[in-house]
Amino acid sequence: MSTTQLAGQAVDVTGGWTPHIWLGAPAPGGLALPAAHPTMAWLYSPRGVFLDEECLVVADSGNHRVLIWHGVPEQDEQPADVVLGQPDGTTEGPAAGGRGPERGMHLPTGVLVHDGRLIVADAWHHRILVWDEVPRRSDQPPDLVLGQPDVSSAEPNRGAQCSACSMYWPYGVGIIDGWFYVADTGNRRVLGWADGIPDSPDVPADLVLGQPDPSSREENRGEQVGPASFRWPHDVTGTAGLLLVADAGNHRVVGWRPLPEADRDADLLLGQPDFQTASEFPYGPQRGDRFRFPYAASLDGSRLAVADTANNRVLLWDDLPTDGRPADAVLGQPSFEANGENRWSSVERDTLCWPYGLCLHGDRLAIADSGNNRVLIWRRA
């Protein structure tokens, strides 16, 4: 349990959250290193995770694959049941084995299961992969590819000018109120389809958020940061009537309520004092209301979790903060002021090193602890 000192007494800063399951590399000697060759149990720099009652899905990004556990894992280092993007559980490398993009992946990041469909952001192939059912056998090809004209293509923006059908490093995906969203990070925008996942890669997005038109792709719209721009929009989350975007490069999370149907200013801001500020908070003692490169956010009901990646911690709010108030809990650090990798010590069950992705589901929180080559599932009493 992480505690800090207040008036001479130890105070729990975790809000009752404790680490429960450790998946991936163990830590002999205090270091969690990946295996020399992949296995179905070990991970290398995982960047995305999804968790519900039916399955756990991990973007094992450094091994260029996605691992699936059917059911919630119940023991440490439990091997996955299914691997996608590789021919087997011991092969590594982007589009490995000379198979190309048809069955391979290149740095998959965002993962999501919605209405029984599996969605993967295959970031460095500049596309989204969709399976109509969560696969139960390994090396199963996707049923749909978005962002490219066909399954064999992998060029940024389809090898042409940026458009409402193309992508460049899409890192995050989300579905809110029937809208399908993609954090199209390399194009510094969020794409949205009002009718959900399109059935063809040639269906243009109904919404281009963060740019003045579908062909523009400059950081912060080529201007100073503002309420309608992104630097590195990396993840999307939300709930009924609310869209949140983790704008990592501007060290903030921004939100729209109600859902935007066209490009417009954000209504909600976390991590910065105002929409015109994008400064990185100094590296020294931190605060509970500022971020350094927040790469992921997850909202479940009114509870919000943010991966404050460069501060090696996760911040949690019991209710969505509409007033910029500090977080209610911090995971991975002994206090809101600390920010060291693994607390400048060895890897322990409650330490973090560059948490890159997370998924909040009820009283469980799955964290892709990328720098420690593992996924941690925390539980709240």
TrEMBL record:
Gene3D superfamilies given in the database record: TolB, C-terminal domain
InterPro entries according to UniProt: 6-blade_b-propeller_TolB-like, TRIM-NHL_E3_ligases
SUPFAM superfamilies: NHL repeat (SSF101898)
A single GO molecular function term of this UniProt record: zinc ion binding
Chain residue ranges for the region called Disordered: 202-232
Ranges in coiled-coil conformation: none
Name of the protein in question: NHL repeat containing protein
